[in-house]
Each structure stands twice: as C-alpha cells, then as structure tokens.
Amino acid sequence: MFNIRAMTLNDYDAVIVLMRSTPGISLRDADSLEATARYLRRNPGMSFVAEADGVVCGCVMSGHDGRRGYLQHLLVLPDYRRQGIANALVDRCLASMETVGIHKCHLDVFKTNQAAADYWQSQGWQLRTDIDRYSFIRSGKENA
User: Where are the alpha helices (DSSP H) in 32-110?
Assistant: First the structure.
C-alpha cells in the first residue's frame, strides 16, 4: 500500500535521489534546492510524493502558468512500479490543477526515453506533431 501527499521542500533530498537514479531524467540548475523552493511556493499543493514502506518511492512536480498545466519529473522506483503509483500521482496533479480552472496539461519527454513515451501514450496522452518547442537561455548557462 502507498500514501500520496503534497511535496514539501523537506522532500527535496529524497526526490533528488529518485531523479539521479532514474534513467531518462536530466537534472538541471532549475532542479536546485532554491529553484525547487520557488516552484513549490508558486504552485502550492500541486506537486506530490508517494510513500510506501517508509520510503519516498515516487514523485511528480506540476504547476501552471494561469492557462495551461505542466507536469515534470514523474518517477517511481522500479520496485514499486505496476502498483498504480504513477497513475495516482498524475491524477492528483490533474485534479489540483482543475480546482484552479486548468483543464489542459503539457509535459516533455526526451526523444530517447521510449519507456516514458510508451507510458504517456498508454495513458491517453497525445504526442503533439503540430508544434515544436524552442528554448532560450538568457544567462548563457548550458545547464539552466
């Protein structure tokens, strides 16, 4: 059995361990403690962790820009997969966004992360082929 609760900054170390141990996840400067604190403050009650056996075994971060929602870093430790944890985490994010009027959500998947692509497609998420995402890093920091 697992429990899902809102992520707090106290979960940061456990979440970073999850990210570092999960293939297909890229850590950036934007995943720093300070940036995560800012993200959680800006999007209260929209990021979640899953606990089982006294361990943080899954997490997801989500937020919105006032119009659209965004999911990031959905992770579940291999030993805890196929128990509905990922689906429950995503559902909590989508429900939290719906309470503030956000009904459409986006996420990014590295083209090399086939396992993630397979998961999202199996859950009914649609791969967009009509848009391209462009990024610009003003600071010049490659790992922003």
Answer: 33-42, 85-98
Q: Could you tell me the CATH number of the domain that includes residue 118?
A: 3.40.630.30
Instruction: Report pLDDT digits (tens) over 11-51.
Output: 999 999 999 988 878 889 899 999 999 999 999 999 999 99
The values of phi and psi at residue 19, to 5°, are -65, -45
- Nearest residue to 23 via CA among 119, 93, 114, 84: 114
3-state SS class at 80: helix
Of 114, 52, 54, residue with least CA distance to 84: 52
In a domain, 138, yes or no: no
Q: Which domain holds residue 72?
A: 3-122
DSSP H helices, 4-111, are: 12-20, 33-42, 85-98
Domain count, the chain: 1
Q: Global pTM? A: 0.90
Is position 142 within any domain? no
The answer to whether position 130 is within a domain reads no
